[in-house]
Specification:
By secondary structure, this protein is mostly helical. It contains 6 helices and no strands. Helix 2 runs antiparallel to helix 3, helix 3 runs parallel beside helix 5 and helix 4 packs antiparallel against helix 5. It starts with a helix and ends with a helix.
């Protein structure tokens, strides 16, 4: 049973996931992403545009969702965390366009600067997390 191809492949995926998640780079990206998500959630009150309720609620929900997706709490299996990073990319892109997309006239300088900068940082961190295991993944596919 120990030499069954499925068990060997499963162990290889688990080892790859463990190596990808325990590197200093992965831990740094995870920490910065958590801080970015928490800042995004609190940004309406930090930067002073909490009067624009649609954007404030949008940033609160998007920030919490981003922090949960990128914190790694639900993605201990590499395949799940890789997929969640791509979902976080969408949240980062949404953050950039949200001052113009949400209901009401909320596109003022404060909201645009805040959301564009935080959105770009969130998108960059999510892309970094999504690309974390790509080379190892391609090498595994070539062997099969």
């Amino acid at each position: 049973m120990e030499t069954h191809p499925d068990i060997i492949a499963m162990r290889a995926r688990h080892d790859m996931a463990e190596r990808a998640a325990t590197t200093t780079r992965a831990q740094a990206v995870e920490t910065m992403a958590l801080v970015t998500g928490l800042y995004l959630a609190a940004s309406p009150w930090i930067t002073g545009f909490n009067g624009f309720s649609t954007l404030a609620v949008n940033n609160l929900i998007t920030g919490i969702a981003y922090a949960v997706l990128m914190s790694g709490g639900f993605g201990r299996a590499y395949d799940r965390s890789h997929s969640m990073a791509w979902a976080a990319c969408l949240l980062g892109a949404w953050t950039v366009i949200s001052p113009w997309a949400v209901a009401g006239d909320v596109s003022i300088t404060k909201t645009i600067v805040n959301n564009v900068i935080v959105g770009i940082v969130a998108l960059a961190l999510a892309l970094t997390a999504a690309a974390a295991g790509r080379p190892a993944n391609q090498a595994t596919r070539r062997r099969m």
